[in-house]
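Record type: monomer structure entry
Structure origin: computed from sequence
Chain ID: A
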Amino acid sequence: MQIEIKIDSTCKEPKIIIYTDKVTDEINNLVSKMTERSPKVLSGFRGDTLEILEQSDIVRLYAAAGKVYATTDNGEYTLRLRLYELEERLSKDRFIRISNSEIINLRKVKNFDLSFTGTICVTLSDGATTYVSRRYVKRIKQVLGI
């Protein structure tokens, strides 16, 4: 992708023009990021303390016992959003849903074990092991290019 910036003192409002041969996911993501009105902040509770969570620190998000949790490099937090709401707020190129109850950070994955029939075992950077449900195996394989 090429980026060009032109400085024009007569310009009253910034204008962005995209030249492309076709509209791709990359173009759509770029447009949605530029038109975003408010930052998509994630906050989690640890005890009575509310903390802002950086997406880069999140290892996984999962639902258990009617609550949603975020595991980060700094510990575990309880969230007040549902997984589908989190999925909308999270970076599409970093996070992927692996089951109805779990979303993982692809940049925090140590390895994918494909030796299991019909599913994939995922080892995360914090040592946790989880599994891709059969429903999401095809999608994970597309992301991994296999």
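Annotation 1: The longest helix spans residues 25-35.
Annotation 2: The beta strands are 42-46, 49-53, 58-64, 67-72, 75-79, 95-99, 102-105, 109-113, 120-124, 129-132.
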